Fold this protein.
Amino acid sequence: MLCDFIYIDDIVEGVIRIAAKPPEQKSETIPYALYNIGNNELIELARFIQAIKTACGKTAEKIMLPMQPGDLKRTYADTQKLEDEVGYKPKMDEGIEKVCGVV
């Protein structure tokens, strides 16, 4: 499984930056812009779990289950527009460190 993991504080930061810089209105019928807020990097679930274990200094008992209804094999947020227009790119490792109390 490959996912684009993101920490909640990074989502909030992205929303705040977007709200502080309203988009130019492209037309009278579309007075808004859409942004993907994500890590913009596909990360294997095993790597994500390992990063949490390393940052927290803990071990983990993994119970591997088959894909569940609604699970996606791959999720990805193209954040280029977010980076270009508001200058923001979240980093997964910083969020993991916050969760583990390292930062």
